[in-house]
Amino acid sequence: MPEIMCPDCGTKRLLSHGDRVPDEVVRGVLVCAGVGCGKWLPFAFSGESVTLAPQQHIWPPLLPSVPVTAAAVFLEAELSFYGAAYRAAVVMARAAMEAALKAAGVKGKDLFDLINNSGLSKGLKIAAHDARFLGNGAIHETSPDVVPLTALLALDTAARVANRLPYPRVKDKNASS
What we know:
By secondary structure, this protein is α+β, with helices and mostly antiparallel strands. About 40% of the residues lie in helices and about 15% in strands.
């Protein structure tokens, strides 16, 4: 059985897979049980090898300038994607995009207005509206047509929107006046 080590606290655990088809790939999210850690680790488990997903970026990684509020929601979208919860990934990507727009100080009564008032390029606004539409469909529809590609498009767009927004500077509380 493969051993997983938490990159934050160093706690080691064995990963067991029970009864499964030999060529099956199991994806999910591990939560570190180290004292006080709780780090979420997306993974893929195939045969006897484990790949931790944070080292792979299918969509653009968020820039350090993206506020923590939006980045935390985006992380939930990523974890949903790696856990094969594609509908949840699309919904959370939509929520991350909305959180980023609000954090950037964009005004509007709903996500439609936030996108239109964002100052983003025409092409990125079109992509953002597409992701908004996908998110709305994932929230309100019960059809099973939310596939990995749908989630990938929503995550990619949410990351590109979040990375292109100008965020207000946060004052350093330790800086002298």
